[in-house]
Amino acid sequence: MMDELDLLKKDWQKKETELPRLSYEEIYRMTWKRSSSIVKWIFYISLMEFFFWTAINVVFTDAEAWEMIKKMHLYEFTIVMTTLSYIILIFFIYKFYTNYRQISFTDSSRELMKAILKVKRTVTQYVWFNIAIFAISLVTSIYGSLRFGPDGEKLVSAANEAGNEALFWLLIIGMMILFVVVFVTLLWLFYKLLYGLLLSRLRKNYKELEEIDV
After folding, report:
1. Closest listed residue to residue 52, CA positions, set 210, 194, 201
2. What is the sign of the dihedral through the CA atoms of 67, 68, 71 and 73?
3. Total-model pTM
4. What is the DSSP string of 116-144?
5. Whole-number Cα distances in Å, 142 to 65, 83, 172, 179, 203
6. pLDDT tens digits, residue range 70-89?
7. What is the dihedral of CA 31, 34, 40, 44, to 10 degrees?
């Protein structure tokens, strides 16, 4: 029985040694191609997202909307925030492009690992920037509507007349925080779905490179 078991072990070990083994260069090339493709898609998605939100902004921000923004005393704020947002978003798109170019021309596993970490950091910064801009815009819009909008002014006046101004603003702040948290969470989940899968694949590639970079 032991002789048969030993023979089986030897036969299995012999077959294992005969199996083709990937070289360092082959593993690196496959990981490099996958990483380059992922970063290219991140760049393309950021471009599509930029043009989508720009189109939404152009379609829905008409003369009537600008007039309402002026009435809420948010015209200058909106101009500054919009201009700043576009400048920073274009910068991030440029960073995604340069990250893609950098990965496309790496020639070592260590350099590729550095490039992957850089991409992950850029995507994280991009996502949190968008979330921050969204939260700031939402808070200022709600405040402007309550403070200067026709319906908001009626509510504030009614609270003042009833002597409940402090309680009114506490309730408004509480509702605003809840509203912002819900929408920010939804936006975060959207970005996690949009970029999370690509980043998880990059993370897997990074671990593979760690294993061969000895």
Report:
1. 194
2. negative
3. 0.78
4. HHHHHHHHHHHHHHHHHHHHHHHHHHHHH
5. 15, 21, 9, 10, 39
6. 888 888 988 999 999 999 99
7. -150
